[in-house]
Amino acid sequence: MESFEKGTKRREGAINIIDLHGTWREMGRQYGALMASEMKHIYETAIIEKLVNGYGYDIEKMKDRARKFYANYPFRFKEILKGMSETSEMSLEQVQLVNAVELLAATALDLPQCTGIAAWGDYVSETLVYGRNYDYLPWFKEFSCDIVIACYHPADGSLATATMGYAGEIYVVNGMNEKGIYLELNNGMPSGGALWYDSRVPSVAALFQFLLDGASLDEIESFFQTTKANFAYIIGVSDGQTARCYEWPVFEVKRRESHSRQGLTVLSNHFTEFSWGLPRPEDKTNWLTRSRRQNLLTLAKHFKGAIDSKTMMKMMDTRIEDLGATTDMTVYQMVVVPEHFKIWFKIPDTQDWTEIDMKAILNPRDE
Fold first, then answer.
1. 292-322 core/surface letters (b: 16 or more CB in 10 A; e: else)
2. Is residue 189 part of a domain?
3. Which of 30, 37, 66, 173 could form a disulfide with 96 if both were Cys (CB 3.0 to 4.6 A apart)?
4. What residues in the chain have per-residue pLDDT under 70?
5. Model-level pTM greater than 0.90?
């Protein structure tokens, strides 16, 4: 185990796990020192080799984009990034580029896709289980050893919160807090359009705030009702008992009401809440969003009443050709049992399902 100031780092196979404590600047310093080599790898390989040298992206335009992404960050998250630049041997500008790497790499054709499924009630053998595929550009598989679970224990009294993603990304596409609330994000562009607002707090940063401040699903719901998205997303949120899905374009938010399948929600990349009145998007041009959704609904129906973490892993292991949802763009996967603070993490081609005890990392406070 490595340590720096009040922070520590260990590995579960390829997965980095860092435990950060203190003020936001202090946690940033710990993050920067402990994850410097992984952040440099992403900077040198993704930003310079791939995007600048390989695809001919203009570095100045990327710096501008990364700066705008950072500009409307809440102060406490800016403090993390500033702390990282103090100890990682990277400038704040370089740290901003790494923080925005997925945004910079995304083009209209190759946007992150992702699939999620939550089962509870009559669908499970015991308690709520959440399955999650994080889909991105296949060349992101080169960063399999740069994946990190970063757990923040803020000195300001916020809830301890863990984020799961690539090194240097200070936001939430997957996260869990000490109350056992798990949250994950999918792209909603096929239904919500491609509008992007630089003038708003990035939704992925807002979701980090939701977990730091929200001790229940109802509190998190109030945050959705109060916050405008800067891009179209579909968010799954669950605690130990139930899951909710929020369809969140830039102009409104709706909680998906599932009348036909109590105890099951499947998220791909299109809105399914009837009240939008939207047609279903064309499958082929929208990353097979309908097929991935339908396949998981069918698998869940098949395993109804018997779904547990092992069955969910089997479902998430099923490729789209075999009527599942996993594709060549699936860069990492999770199965989560929030009630028991358990996560199983898989990195296709790198690491099979690995159990991670989130209770030991988050140290939930007793009420």
1. bbbbbeebbeebeeebbbebbbebbbeebee
2. yes
3. 66
4. 107-110, 366-367
5. yes
